[in-house]
Amino acid sequence: MASRIPQLQSKVTEASQVVANHGSSFYKVLLEQNKHYIQDPPTIEKCQTLAKQLFYTRLASIPLRYNSFLKELEYAKNIVKHRHDLKIEDVGFGALFGLECFAWFCGGEIVGRGFTFTGYHV
């Protein structure tokens, strides 16, 4: 493992040089390609107006998202009612999804405790 550290350091140095050399040109190209999204002039008032528009647009979309949630919930209820018609593949996908959710939860708990498994800091 220790023999790989210089190799890793050289790769990181090489990558940082590429970013240093090409970063500003990438930034300029990115801004040029997306200039139709940029508000001119960029004033504080314009930023506040855009923030309010985003907030109220999100607020207005709540009923649509709620109706979509109700449709998904109805679909899930329908699956539970007709569970005898399920194929083993569907059950397997559901089990894998549940396992993935549990794994992300456990990973989040470990990260939240500072990467300790017991919860005690040494």
Automatic annotation (TrEMBL):
It is found in: Mitochondrion membrane. Its main location: mitochondrion. It comes from the Eukaryota. InterPro entries: ATP_synth_F0_gsu_mt. Keywords: ATP synthesis, CF(0), Hydrogen ion transport, Ion transport, Membrane, Mitochondrion, Transport. Belongs to the ATPase g subunit family. This is Mitochondrial ATP synthase subunit G protein. The lineage of its organism: Eukaryota, Viridiplantae, Streptophyta, Embryophyta, Tracheophyta.
